[in-house]
Amino acid sequence: MVENSNSGNSDKTVIILAAAQKRFAHYGLLKTTMNDIAEDIGMSKASLYYYFADKETIFQDVIRKEQREFVNQIEKFLSDKVSGEELLITYVKKRLSYFQTFLNLSKLSSDSIKGIKPIFSQLFENFKHEEVTLLKKIIKNGIENGEFEKVNVTEISELFISLIQGLRSNLIIRKELENLDKKDYQILEKQFINVAKIFSKGIKK
Amino acid sequence: MVENSNSGNSDKTVIILAAAQKRFAHYGLLKTTMNDIAEDIGMSKASLYYYFADKETIFQDVIRKEQREFVNQIEKFLSDKVSGEELLITYVKKRLSYFQTFLNLSKLSSDSIKGIKPIFSQLFENFKHEEVTLLKKIIKNGIENGEFEKVNVTEISELFISLIQGLRSNLIIRKELENLDKKDYQILEKQFINVAKIFSKGIKK
Fold first, then answer.
1. Which listed CATH number (1.10.10.60, 3.30.930.10, 1.10.357.10, 1.20.1540.10) goes with B62-202?
2. Which residues of chain B are within 8 Å of residue A159 when distances are taken between CB atoms?
3. Which phi and psi (to 5°) does residue B59 adopt?
């Protein structure tokens, strides 16, 4: 049967994902078809279906790749000897970039984001879990080097992720996602950075 | 012509609003009709329409009354000599109560909340403005009595309101509002109080 998501790193898969990512970035998830992707790489539709069950599976893999890159970037900063506050600021900045990338690849409206939720809820949930894990490392680091007080690491990490998520949710509820402009992202970035600063001072020793 | 919203405090208006509030609390906005409200107070439908153009206008007035009560409660605490941190904690607790009251009166689903947005956006926007005004008073108080550092009062007040709103938005996006249970409110309350604590420490002198 059809191979499913995470089908490894065969050259073909890499080529398909790269082509699909370009398509998604131009036309979004809804307007991209399996046909488009197959044509872009001169592959028959049948061959494409051998590798991926549908465009949603391809999209999930593209997004997972972006998520992995985000996580790797933060992990890299974690090994540097920077303060918890700096880490939180880096975190929210990179998180905003990933948010923009996701919106750019999906080009979903606020309504259709609700519509696709069933398909992607696992993807989102896993990523939130990874985010909390990253935050826990940042907070633990900060406690160990005496910068942060001995807070409940899990509770505080989940709260931070929820606050950053909440600022995005406000935007998703208030505005059509396809209409977000530069100013919206600037406001969001300022909010993100302020939260990172106030939050790290708020748990300082 | 039909009198519109804010039509003063005539006895009749008070009676209508009280009856409507009970109806809304039992059946929600969508399932309540002008007929129901008229019948509840033994008034002809024609008379009811003399006072209010439609049930949405009545609902707006009921909500405005609740919003006013919330603002008055906070204003009262402001005149007490309590710390900024205590004020923020009181603020988020009362804000949660109002959120519950609003959901109870509207009984709207997450989808229908988007649907009614055009009607109520002014109501919500004005209330957010009032919230920011209240927060500015709390922060200013704290700066004056030496508890908080000299922050940008407007920016910080707007951020706090956005964070609290964001935690509600997460819930609205994730879950059907009519299915919120006691546990959801408990989690939200804990998040609210933690934000109030961390935030006030985060802007402490």
1. 1.10.357.10
2. 191, 194-195, 198
3. -60, -45
